[in-house]
């Protein structure tokens, strides 16, 4: 009787005593064989997903990608629900659950269906170039979703998925979250409260040829600053009666931010400025229409920007410093600042570090190098941050890629194999731990 190719390959590895597999159980070895055997299937699914536009505002496109993912999860025994998000003007989310053995750890897997490339983008097509592929979302995050599915299929083939308690949340608006987040992230936050570990399948960070482990993501907070002054003839500027005018007050504040705010893991940016006789911000907050003359002291000035932090304590402290700077008004002026908190921080907790240590145990058993910790300054905000206060987590279980969020986004297809093997073994081991 002819032996199946996958079984023959496994037998050869075992008979050779391959050192990279020496510490792996037979089930874990089978997972690796399955990932390799299904590689072409995984890449074909990636191509299909990428060729369906799913920009965050393309409601039909995001829904179509969800419809492609649903049968893949149902075939693995997941109960799949579509959570519509019309209330926040977005498509919706997939929430999928797999019930396993009682009393064992519950895992939350996170990814997203949408991309930054809307339906009118000229960048729309999957193009394979040997061991790489170019296309919208090929790395962020359609590559991550196929890694997740490849790992789960490997677990199913090895029999380790049966007892695993897993919940999957694939958001449809990670790149442009619906407002308010109390609605658009309610399902994700609830899942985080139920979980014992969270694994985020966004892209793998690679530095100098080394795969990096991500245990932190910084927050994303926005602010709006408005300054006012007394209007009048420019010849009276800085006088006791006229004061400094709104634009000088705005400039004072921004300069003070630059001088007084810097500290480790903090960045802050001014993205939009305008001032004069009038300064009207549009309803989307991305344009300012101004009027004015050189011989008129400006009565109004507006600026908008963001700041990013590594912990909630840092967010609170920086916000207090900004408020204090704003309050030290120049003569004859007033100013106010308001804040909008977007993505919370994911701090580098001891629990997150312990998860990375377990992943590095998997790496050692696979014969892969240890993954050093990535500097959180090199990673943007993401959905896992919404559950970071409730559950330990890891980021970066998706594909390695470059040029994300821009035409030419390119994924390293070979990284699918090692990432899926890492994820399958890590999920198997975590799912067997007692709660």
Automatic annotation (TrEMBL):
The Peptidase M20 dimerisation domain, residue ranges: 215-332
PROSITE patterns: ARGE_DAPE_CPG2_1
Keywords: Hydrolase, Metal-binding, Signal, Zinc
Cited Pfam families: M20_dimer (PF07687), Peptidase_M20 (PF01546)
Cofactor(s) the protein needs: Zn(2+)
Keyword field contains Hydrolase: yes
A single GO molecular function term of this UniProt record: hydrolase activity
UniProt signal peptide: 1-22
Record's keyword annotation contains Cytoplasm: no
The protein's name in its UniProt record: M20/M25/M40 family metallo-hydrolase
Species for this entry: Sphingobium phenoxybenzoativorans
């Amino acid at each position: 009787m002819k032996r199946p190719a996958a079984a023959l390959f496994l037998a050869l590895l075992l008979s050779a005593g391959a050192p990279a597999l020496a510490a792996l159980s037979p089930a874990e070895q089978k997972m690796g064989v399955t990932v390799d055997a299904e590689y072409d299937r995984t890449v074909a699914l990636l191509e299909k997903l990428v060729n369906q536009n799913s920009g965050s505002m393309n409601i039909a496109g995001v829904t179509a990608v969800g419809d492609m993912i649903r049968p893949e999860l149902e075939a693995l025994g997941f109960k799949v629900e579509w959570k519509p998000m019309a209330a926040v003007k977005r498509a919706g989310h997939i929430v999928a659950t797999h019930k396993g053995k009682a009393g064992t750890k519950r895992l939350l897997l996170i990814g997203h269906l949408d991309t930054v490339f809307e339906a009118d983008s000229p960048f729309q097509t999957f193009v394979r170039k040997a061991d790489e592929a170019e296309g919208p979302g090929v790395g962020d995050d359609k590559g991550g979703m196929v890694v997740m599915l490849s790992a789960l299929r490997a677990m199913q083939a090895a029999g380790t998925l049966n007892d695993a308690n897993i919940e999957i949340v694939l958001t449809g608006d990670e790149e442009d979250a619906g407002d308010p987040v109390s609605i658009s992230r309610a399902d994700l936050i609830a899942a985080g409260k139920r979980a014992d570990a969270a694994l985020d399948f966004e892209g793998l960070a690679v530095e100098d040829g080394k795969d990096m482990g991500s245990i932190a993501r910084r927050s994303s907070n926005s602010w709006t600053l408005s300054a006012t002054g007394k209007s009048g003839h420019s010849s009276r500027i800085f006088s006791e009666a006229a004061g400094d005018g709104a634009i000088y007050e705005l400039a004072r504040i921004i300069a003070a931010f630059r001088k007084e705010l810097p500290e480790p893991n903090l960045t802050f940016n001014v993205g939009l400025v305008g001032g004069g006789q009038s300064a009207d911000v549009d309803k989307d907050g991305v344009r300012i229409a101004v009027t004015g003359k050189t011989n008129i002291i400006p009565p109004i000035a507006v600026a908008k920007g963001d700041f990013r932090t590594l912990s909630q304590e840092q967010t609170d402290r920086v916000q207090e410093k900004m408020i204090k700077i704003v309050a030290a008004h120049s003569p004859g002026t007033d100013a106010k600042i308001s804040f909008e908190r977007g993505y919370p921080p994911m701090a580098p907790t001891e629990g997150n570090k312990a998860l990375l240590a377990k992943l590095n145990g998997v790496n050692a058993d696979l014969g892969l190098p240890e993954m050093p910790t990535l500097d959180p300054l090199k990673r943007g905000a993401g959905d896992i941050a919404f559950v970071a206060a409730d559950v330990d987590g890891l980021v970066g279980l998706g594909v390695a890629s470059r040029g994300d969020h821009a035409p030419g986004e390119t994924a390293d297809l070979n990284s699918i194999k090692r990432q899926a093997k890492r994820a399958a073994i890590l999920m198997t081991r975590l799912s067997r731990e007692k709660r």
